[in-house]
Structures are given as C-alpha cells and as structure tokens.
C-alpha cells in the first residue's frame, strides 16, 4: 500500500480551493486562492480589472496589475494578510469576521473603500458605534465615521464626545479629516455647553409641582440672595445649599455638557451634606433631589444638547 500523503499549500485556509481562478498576494507574504465570481460581485473596480481586462481601472489602483501565475490570474496587494482575509470573509458567504478594535475596523473600511465595496462598507459601519467604542473613544469614532462618510455615526459619536472635556487627548485619526471639521466639532461642544449651563440659572423648566420641593419650602436654612420664578408665575426664595449645587452642576456642564454629569454621586453628595445640617431638609433632600435629577434634570440636559445642530458638511 502506498503511504498516505498530505498536500501542503502556501494558501491560507479556507482560501485554498484548487478550483479558484485568482491568486491574491499580500504585502506580508500571505496568499489567497479566491474565486473571481465573488470578487467581481463585491467590487466594480475588480470587475473591470478581472473581467473586462483593464490593468488600470482607476487612478486609485495605480500599480495594480493582473498577471498570470500557474494558470491563474494573480494580483499583488499592498494590504496585509489579516486585513485581506477579513475583507474576503465579507465577500464570501461566510460569517462576518470579528473586528475587536477600531484599528481593525478602520483597516477593513479603508481596503473596502479602495476597491469600491460600498455595500460591504455599510455592513461594517454599525461596528463603529458599539457602546464600548463610543464611551471609551468617541473622538476616534467621530473621525473615522466622518472620514468614510457615515453621517448618522458621525453625529452619534459627536454626541458622545460631550462626555469628555472639550480639548481631549490627541488621536491619530484626526490626521485623516480636515481641520475645519474638528473646529466645527469644538464649536458644537461649546454651543452644547452654553445650552446645558443655561438650565442651572433658569428654573422655568421645573415641573408644576416644583414649589413643593424642600429647598423652596424650608425657612430654617439660609436663603440665597436672589429669589427665583417658577412655571406657576410665582417667585420663591431658595435655600442656598440648593443654589450651590446648581452652581457646581454648571461648572461641570461647562466642561462636559451631558446628562451623565448631573448624576455624579460626588456632586450630589456635597448637596446632601449641606442639607443634612437642617432638620427639615435632612429628611426630604434625598428624595427631592433624586426626583429633580432622575426625572427632570437629565432629560432637560439631553433635550437642550439635542437641539444643537452639528454643522458639518458631508
């Protein structure tokens, strides 16, 4: 009996089909045996190159040429093997690859855009706005989304940048967008800050029953020097500790104009510590502040910032 032999190929599985009619060579030496059908269905540029026989389908493909190799068409790519494999997984009827970070997503999008794979780019764009990316790296998400023309994702990421100070750490993706776009983002941040801060000095947004809150009812605490009108048309004296809380909230909103700021436990704790000095306020301050912040203040901050337009051209 003849010995069992195992054929070893230089191709990366599962892109090693002997019936494939195109070989892709990547910049780091990886090889992929792929089917022309899937490439041409995914990319109009590769369709021109592989089916119509043009060796230079567009200026973006300068240096890309089809050659013959072992009875197949062969193309040399400047992309690396990992990125190429991920893009091919989108071209084929496979499960989508796992893209764990923004660098991976950006590399895949860049290759897809180069080859005109607009339909597949739309399948990748949703990965940009995963909660973990938006919360931890909103400025990077903003720059990447704008770079690739994803309007909804750009606007959503801009909203998440409000959770950070206006001048945050530098990110490399800013090099891929115009300075004018970043300037527009800073303007947006400032306008949102003004809108959110205005809530701390104008109580007309308070609910109709606001006069029942303890900081309007207590006469034992020191009152603020100013009286404040409410939605019922009446003017009320206000306990100083409450106005001090609103002033601290204003400073926080000036830096980070988002609803999350006013729920900061440290901000609330200072107000409650001051209220604890009064017998009447001590028993009611926690519940009343919780109602103000949870049911009204956060919603008004979101409403105020959502009304601010992100004036960025696409």
Automatic annotation (TrEMBL):
Domain BTB: 20-100
SUPFAM superfamilies: POZ domain (SSF54695)
Pfam families cross-referenced by the UniProt entry: BTB
InterPro entries: BTB/POZ_dom, SKP1/BTB/POZ_sf
PROSITE patterns linked: BTB
Highest taxon listed in the record's lineage: Eukaryota
Name of the protein in its database record: BTB domain-containing protein
Lineage: Eukaryota, Fungi, Dikarya, Basidiomycota, Agaricomycotina
